[in-house]
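Continuing the batch. This is chain 6 of the set; chains 1 through 5 are on the previous pages. Same settings as before, nothing changed between runs. Recording input and output for traceability.
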Amino acid sequence: MSAQSSAPPKPTNRGIIATVTGTASSAPALPPEQRRYDTFIKVWSTIRDNYFDKTFSNLDWNAIKGEYEPRVKAAKTDAELYRILNEMLGRLNRSHLSVIPPEVYQALRDATKAAREKERATNSDKHSSDSGAAGADDDEDALDSIDDTSPFGIGVDLSLINDRFMITRMDANSAAEYAGLKRGYIIEKVSGVSLQEMLNRILIYNSSIHSTSVKQFVPSYVVSSMLNGERDSYVTVSYLDENDQPKEAKIRREPLKEKTIIVAANFPPQTLSFESTSLDEKTGYIRFNVFAIPVIERFCQAIGDLRSKDGLILDLRGNTGGVLAAIPTLAGMLTPVSIDLGTSIYRTRSEPLTAPSKAKNFKGRVVILVDDRTASAAEMFALALRDNGRALIVGQHTSGEALPSLAVKLPTGAMLFYPFANYRSAGGTFIEGAGIEPDRSVPLDRKALFNGKDVQLEAARSLLTEDPAFAALKPKKQDVPPPPDYSGPVSPPPPAKRVPPSTIGGAKLTISGPGVPAKAATGQDAASMRYIDAFIKTMGGADALRTIATITLKGRAMLRTGGATTQFAFQAYRDNDDKFSELLTSEATGEIREVINGKSHFVQTDFGAEQELPSTPNMAANSDLFYLLTTLVSARELYPSLVFKGIFERDGKKTAVIEGRTKMNTDLALAFDVENGDLVNFTRGYSSTSFGDYRKIEGLSLPFAIDQSGYIKIQLDEIKVNTPIDQSLFTKKISCFDKVD
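Output for chain 6:
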């Protein structure tokens, strides 16, 4: 799993932060040669603009483009293109950096479809027949909607060990256990579909790249989309037992203890696996397979249940990472004081990472279990705790893939995964390419698993009792050299520039009017005020706008940064002029809340981050999405200089453009649709907001489409004015980890 992170904050004076991942977009209907070339340019430019190492491993990235461009133009197939692209990316020699062909995902879908069709042929009961119907459907979206979210299965976790699908965990009293399966068994087929053939097909498509990132999510996909299915349906599992003898079992799917979650956009759904228990009166045990928002609440509850134990074992074997933003909160529940988690090193800056201690925290000894499948966020978490003297590590050397990354869909339908940061631990270690050597190395013993014995777990339990080992565990706060300078010379920011009317709202405009009048030094000309006054009237009139006391907005938002996008459910609330709340919600990030309540200004997230922000007078009112529009009611007082510049063409429509300056001497420019009088763009300083899709709401005309500086695009579904608002939306939430008991 590629590591995801709370990426660089959204560029706004209010400082909302968010996890950023890629999102799919429809490929244009272009000739294959053009699609391939566009894909090459997208890959090359994304790395040029967003890859964390601006030195490109001491390569000339412009020269690389010149070297590979002729080969791309000569490519006859998409497969050839992907080999070329991955060869190019391979020159950078980093993990989490590759192009994944769409055939990889198609191979997984084909295997799932074949398994479902064979299930239909071998099952006669109604539920089994129904479960197969989706598999026979050619609609892949319908297939995904069934396979990826089913809460019914056989209760196992799989891992790829030497390219074989081994059962490494099994739910107690699960359908698999009753069918006679055991940990250590190798699953070869699901409903007659060979997993080895599926994997070979995937590796053929990925033959030119380091395929670890693909292999990491394949076992989870097999569980969630092939072993899981409809209620009471049957799946036939062909496996090798402890003597490597082939066996077969027909297993009825039963309700699962865990649910399928979305860790990040463009990643396959993953079945969350979480377990906490008391091993004995002195030892607690917690295991989870992915760093994700739902883990935080369950981890907190487990810490509460196990807080009286002397020692705690955290099992991160097979944990391939996930959302980096979960790390500080989880680590904060394992320390009585704030700890240094290391440093994220971005393209032009470095950011220290800390884990503030949470009210609910475990104070006893901690041992972390890892193996060669422990990757990314899981590696960072384990090393951070050891470097701070809070944990010892047992198991196998980890994978050494620890770069926070993003995913972007390409014009051909392939996916580009690329790292936007590097990571250095508090002790000065770069995990990338090196991995973590355990304090006590214990190899996996498959034969012991057959007999129900976990030698790695037993070693961890033993280590908890060894006083000298923990006495020697000291925080590593050594002096380390500064992070690598990936940015090159840093130039001072350019001086502020006026936004010329030819580029208002980022669109190229061409003059279609009779000419441009000369700009007056100050004052508002009559033409400017006619457009503004007409717009205020179209909106419903100045009096109606002044009577708005509350506003409720609901819809969708798309946050764009780092070359990728994240989609959110969007809500915003304003209560008079002193209270404002904005909520962004997605499956991967949970809820991100920014609140201004007259007393404080803060951001809270479901992944535990909380930040107090500066507050200024009228900030709540000024945060309203419609604030720029309603300021035009007072344009004569607020904007002492307003000059009509002429009629321009913008997005195929005639637009009246006005330039001016605010009372604070900031440049501004307004663009009005000549045909209907709507304000379509308001540019002030470096901030540009576009408005569209105006609709009538209770006598007012308000925009339902808002694009703020090209970073966040909002499409509203609902606007309410002057309706009561739940006041809890303007207060801080209290989470499990905020309470001692």
